[in-house]
């Protein structure tokens, strides 16, 4: 089944070349079913790249998904053409009176800045508070996860002595649960960050459960008690060459950066990177969309509330 995206979005051409089924607005409106409504708050500087990465993964679901794109009004993006923002993106003021089945808040290259000093911090807090009443399930990625854990629960981030950079092995702490259904015992996830959240801080919060972690990279996936908010510290959505692009950029700027771990054969950056995370990434996003959005959200989105009382299809599972 397709993902429904705006007519003429640049990602369409790339996705069609990869045989991922997309459907433009005109064709989707002719169908007599309700698509899932997903809001993407894109905080990444290269927004078109991030759109394509996430749409690629969510396009593998048998569900029809309708996307809206949002950026912060309090910070003007410098790496995305203004005409693209005007054509495809909206600000919070434009979407705040709508309700959504799901929402994704991306990472952002601001992790070394204190939360309160980020230019759009107050706006982001308002968006996160709004999402608790107007979005059924929210997926927070990398810095977006750190920001949400700090805003909701006061969990701090800590600077790392060395950038967490590469592809790391992970395990599932709670097996046979829906977010990681179908995962191998060991699976791989890319990470690219200078800060971390720590197990001991999360374990102090009764409303949070650690679902997955890595011996080398630390906490990976956390879920809240109501099973409506997910905090993912890695970048499962990354393309095969994303870490390479980051590494080449840093080297060209004269920065001291290590070769991404477990990424190049024999850690040789002249060789082609090996993709180890694609299947796990597809499962992660498909499982979230299916089990935590589609099977829980009400047909009438106006019935959404902030108490999580509409998730009866979940039973006692996580």
Automatic annotation (TrEMBL):
<dbReference type="InterPro" id="IPR005697">
    <property type="entry name" value="HST_MetA"/>
</dbReference>
<dbReference type="GO" id="GO:0004414">
    <property type="term" value="F:homoserine O-acetyltransferase activity"/>
</dbReference>
<dbReference type="Pfam" id="PF04204">
    <property type="entry name" value="HTS"/>
</dbReference>
<feature type="active site" description="Acyl-thioester intermediate">
    <location>
        <position position="142"/>
    </location>
</feature>
<feature type="active site" description="Proton acceptor">
    <location>
        <position position="235"/>
    </location>
</feature>
<keyword id="KW-0028">Amino-acid biosynthesis</keyword>
<comment type="function">
    <text>Transfers an acetyl group from acetyl-CoA to L-homoserine, forming acetyl-L-homoserine.</text>
</comment>
<keyword id="KW-0012">Acyltransferase</keyword>
<feature type="binding site">
    <location>
        <position position="192"/>
    </location>
    <ligand>
        <name>substrate</name>
    </ligand>
</feature>
<feature type="active site">
    <location>
        <position position="237"/>
    </location>
</feature>
<keyword id="KW-0808">Transferase</keyword>
<dbReference type="GO" id="GO:0005737">
    <property type="term" value="C:cytoplasm"/>
</dbReference>
<feature type="binding site">
    <location>
        <position position="163"/>
    </location>
    <ligand>
        <name>substrate</name>
    </ligand>
</feature>
<feature type="binding site">
    <location>
        <position position="249"/>
    </location>
    <ligand>
        <name>substrate</name>
    </ligand>
</feature>
<dbReference type="InterPro" id="IPR033752">
    <property type="entry name" value="MetA_family"/>
</dbReference>
<dbReference type="GO" id="GO:0019281">
    <property type="term" value="P:L-methionine biosynthetic process from homoserine via O-succinyl-L-homoserine and cystathionine"/>
</dbReference>
<keyword id="KW-0486">Methionine biosynthesis</keyword>
<dbReference type="InterPro" id="IPR029062">
    <property type="entry name" value="Class_I_gatase-like"/>
</dbReference>
<feature type="site" description="Important for acyl-CoA specificity">
    <location>
        <position position="111"/>
    </location>
</feature>
<comment type="pathway">
    <text>Amino-acid biosynthesis; L-methionine biosynthesis via de novo pathway; O-acetyl-L-homoserine from L-homoserine: step 1/1.</text>
</comment>
<comment type="similarity">
    <text>Belongs to the MetA family.</text>
</comment>
<dbReference type="GO" id="GO:0008899">
    <property type="term" value="F:homoserine O-succinyltransferase activity"/>
</dbReference>
<protein>
    <recommendedName>
        <fullName>Homoserine O-acetyltransferase</fullName>
        <ecNumber>2.3.1.31</ecNumber>
    </recommendedName>
</protein>
<feature type="site" description="Important for substrate specificity">
    <location>
        <position position="192"/>
    </location>
</feature>
<keyword id="KW-0963">Cytoplasm</keyword>
